[in-house]
Structures are given as structure tokens and as C-alpha cells.
Amino acid sequence: MLCKLAFRNVRKSIGDYTVYFITLMFAVMFFYAFNSLDAQQAVMDLNENKETAAQMMLQSIEVFSVFVAVALAILILYANNFLIKRRNKELGIYLILGMGKGRVAGILMLETLLVGIIALAAGLLLGVLFSQGMSLVTAKMFEAELKEYVFIFSPRAAVQSVIYFGVMFLCVMVFNAVRVSKQKVIKLLHSETENEKVLSKKTGVSVALTAAGIVLIIIAYYLIIKGMLIMYLPFVMLFGIPGTFLLFAGLSGFVYKIAAHNKTRYFKGLNLFVTRQLTSKINSTHTSMALICLMLFVTIVTLGASSGVSAAVNQETNRDIRFDAEYFVYTADAENAGGGVAALEAYGIPVNEFYQRTAEYTQYDSDVDIMEQFADHLDIAQLKEIEGNMKGRAYTGAVSVSEFNTFLDMVGDEPIEIGANEVGVVTYNEAMAKALENFAQDGNKIVSNGREYSLEASDIRIENTRIMGSSSVSPIILVYPDGDVSGFEIRDVMVDGVYVDNVPKEETEDAVWAKQNELRKAAPERPFSYFTTALTSQDSGIGLRVTISFVGIYLGITFLVTAAVILALQQLSAANDNRKRYATLRKLGTEEKLINRSLLKQIAIYFLIPLAVAAIHAIFGIQGLMSMINMVWYENVYQDVFLGLALIAVIYGIYFIMTYISSKKIIKEK
């Protein structure tokens, strides 16, 4: 009997369950899809480095899944609370008819179980289908080929989804049972007549709150625009977050004042009714709207910037490196053997067998303090990055012109030609090169070795001289006349090589690593402190890139669904509370078309206000984050930021449409 009644209630209340059901379905779908990445890894052709990167990604997803599950559990309880509130009168009637609270709680538990099973099954089905497409995306991001097409199903992810969401549904059942047991019949029957208490504000107070919020937000924006996000992040948050809450706290009175000022439009149609409804709702929910705005801001930045950060990492690992391997040879070994290449050959590495061309040069620490001599031509972000990366040693690198020209010859560039009192400059950063060009064009001199050196703009080169990463290199390397570097402290003896071209690079790569592993076992004392290759660097960068992308999307979707569900439920609750008002409008002769239009306008504005403020926040937030990315990776990745934003429009739009359809159904109920 209870099962039949529960099934009938679910079928009758299908409209009420739409938002709840879609939320559960989305949650299960994305939860399964992201936790099934281990099964996708199995069908990809990954080398050892990429397999390590894939494991790093899977471990990160596993950690964040716990956070996502907790957030979704709270969200499901919030949505369930709305459903119970909608059915208070129905539950009260059950109790009046003699049904015990235990049986009423049993009906709710069966309904929750039924909806949960359907949503779980539908979500898993969609998750399995969605994961098939994700396997192609994952393979592309790992730059790997699929071994063969295989229908991917992850039993581990499916079991994990069932366990996590089973626990959530159990919590909902317990919550419903406790709530019913504590409710009084009279309160359940008259819950619809209880009015929400609204704390009204005077117009002057609202305007003052809004103005104060805007001022604080502008201060936060100013710090970001000036490139101070990395230095003053706590202050940006200190001004931005309270500013957002103050803005929404005064928004209702401010909006009403603006709307009422235009009398013609204010009294047109149902605009007066919509304005009153909207401002009343904003006034009573301004705190939650501010939180939703901040969640949407995090969503936009997370989804958008994760794409940008991923692109930056990708560009860093795939930057224009025109050689294949690099060795950091110990100075003593190079001197004893008569050079870095000779030291490698003496150790047992057949340099001529692996490398078609090699270059060897010694890099020194010069006596030129970057912060002292170039500070006036560098922006705040560049100075902060130099200070952080150089760790107190903010001196330029130094190389002799003849040795460095062997490197330029190896990569196919023209040599640098300088006179006795001239220096050249090498940097891997276009922004840094531009700053140095301005330095040279202003007629400035570089003071070093107790004398002044001139710098010509034509002697400034943009070159990637290291494989191991730009952040490990001095952002400025000065190229001196040969005799002028003798007094500087030696930093590294660099030996770089280009693989032979008659063998595929991958084969040479495997042979190089195999030989060095063999030599390490026989003679652990190597003549070099570090060795890496371009292919290894690219493979290791893939793990960071994919992890950032997937974790960003995963968390972004969680915040987005949370924000959209809360907005939807608040509007559904408002529609439920205002049914009598809409009924009054019909009795007064208002056309149904006009009522629906006013409802659509109200929901649209309610959805758009936090999204619009969040979007403005995100413009500045992403700008600040991208400036930090450019500072670290020195690549322009702004165009990649917008790749993740389409998902926001789709999910947000789905909840907006569902809210309108469900609200329209609610206000027609008698």
C-alpha cells in the first residue's frame, strides 16, 4: 500500500521533482565520468612518463571527489527541503486522516528511494555515454593514440557513485523522517498562510550600502589592474568580498528607486508587480545572492582560467625549443676533461652517435643587478617574479660571445656581433625583450666590470636556452666580449645537443636514457648534475596540464550546479508563496500571457543579476590571474580562457528554463 502511494505521489509531483531530479542526474553523471578516467587510461597508448602523469591526475580527481560529494550532499538536502515544504499541507492531511507519523515518514522514504534509484540509473547511463566522449578528449590532451575503440565502463567508478549517492539518499531519508516526527499538524496545514518576514530598508540606506559596496569593489579592481594581485591578494579579497555583500544588501532599494523613477515604464503592464516581487525577494535573500554571485565568480574563473592555465602549461612545455637534450656539466669535470663534451665522452656517452650537432658554453653570474639597473623599465609583475624566482640573487646571467654563438649556430640562428664596449642580451620573454628595447632606445648604459656597456636594440635576442623550464633561468642573459667574463662566478657548463636526423627521435631518446641508466649502475659518479630532454619535458608537462583542466572543470561544474540550483529553488519557493497573488491578478482580468511574461521577466532578472556581477568580477579576476600566468610562463593565453565558458551558459540555461516551466505550473495550481 505504501509503495503504491509513494509511486503515485512521485508521478503526480513530477513537475516539483524536475529540478531535484535533474540535479541528481547531473551530479551522478559528472561524478561517474570524472572518476572513470582510470578506465580511459587503459585504452590509451601511454609511455612511462605519461602513465606517471595520468596517475597524478587520477589521484587529484580522487581527492577532490570527496569535496564534491560533500558539496552535493548539502545541495541535495537543500533541494529536498523545498520539496517537503511544498507538500506540508499534503502531509498534514495524511496525519488528520489517521495515518501515523511513522507511516508518513515511510512514504517519504520510499519516494526518496524511488527518485534516487531512477536518478542514479539515469545519471550512470548518461555518465557512461559522456565518458565515451571524454576518452577522446583525454587522449588528445595526453597527446596519445587510442589503441583501439573500446566501450569504456568503469566498475570502480560505478560502485563509488552508488556508495556515495546511496549515503546521500540515506541522509535525506533520515532528515525527512526526523522532520515529519517533529512537525505539528496545525503548522503543516497552515504553512501556506505563513508570510515571510521582510526587513525593509529606507532608500537612503540602500543607496549608501550600494555605494559603499561599489567603492570597495573598485578598490579591489584597481589593485588587480595595477598588476598587484600576486602581492595584495588578501587585500583584494578583503575589499572584494565585503563589497559584494554590501552591493547586494542595498540592491533591492536601489533597483526599486531606479525602476520607480521612470513612471511611464513603471506603471506599464505588470512592471509594478514585478518590481515589488523582485525587490522583496532580493531584500530577503541578498546574503544568499551574494554567496551565489561569488560561487558563479569562482565557477567562471575556474572553468575559464583552468583552460587558460592549461594552455599556458602546454605552451611552456611545447615552446620553441630547437634542440633535444641538455646537460649541466660540473665545472671541475669539464676543466679536467678539456670541455663539457669531452667529459661526457670520457664518462662513456657516445655523443657523436646520439647527436648530430652539439654546443657548449659556460654561463656565469654577472655583477649586473637586475632590480637596480633595469627596474625603471620593468612592470610590477616582472619585478615580483624576478624577486621570487631569483631568491635574492637578482643578477643577470653572463656568457661569452664566441661560446654562445656556438649555441646559436646549433639552432640555426645568426651569430651576435658586439664591439669591445658593447653587450648583447638574450631573454626568453617577449615582454622582457620589449622592456629592454625601451631601455636601449632611451640611451641607457649597462654598468658592469667597472665600466659602461652600450646595448643596441638589434642585439636583443629572444631565445629558449633551457629545456628544464623558463622559471629556472635568469630572465636576462648578457652576452659579453670574450675576455670580459673571466672575473665572474661560474654557474653552469651547458652542453646541448640535437639528435641525429637519420633515426626517429623517439628511438634516439630511448637509446640515450638506456645508455645513461646503464652507466649510472656501473659508475654512479656522473660528470653532470642534471640531464633532461625536450620530449621528457613535454611528457611531464602533460600531467600538470591535464590535471589543471580536469580539476578546474570538475570543481567549476560543482559550483555552477550549486549556484543554479539555489537560484532555481528560491524562485520556485517564491512562486509557491505567491500563488494567491497570481490568482488575484487573474480575478482582476489579467491575461495569462501577461502573467507568464511577468513571471519570465522576474526569473530572468533574478538569474541575471548575480551572473552579471560575477561576470564583471571574473573579467578582472581572470585578467589578474592571466597576468600571473604570463609572468610565470610568458605566453599570451587570453584567447584560451573563453573555451570553458560555453559549459556555464548551457547548464545555467537549463536550470533557468526548468525554473520558468516549473514556476509557471506552480502559479496555475489552485
Note down, in words, how this protein is organized.
The chain is of the alpha+beta class. The chain folds into 3 domains: 1-194, no CATH class; 195-319 and 534-670, no CATH class; 331-526, no CATH class. The chain is built from 26 helices and 9 strands. The chain has helices at 2-12, 17-35, 37-42, 48-86, 88-96, 101-141, 155-182, 185-189, 203-225, 229-249, 251-261, 263-266, 271-317, 331-337, 340-347, 351-354, 370-373, 380-390, 401-411, 430-441, 505-522, 534-577, 579-587, 592-633, 638-641, 646-667, and strands spanning 325-329, 355-369, 395-400, 422-427, 446-448, 451-462, 477-480, 489-499, 528-533. A 9-stranded mixed β-sheet has the order 5-6-4-7-3-2-8-1-9. β5 (446-448) and β6 form a beta hairpin. α13 (271-317) packs parallel to α24 (592-633). It is elongated, with a radius of gyration of 32 Å.
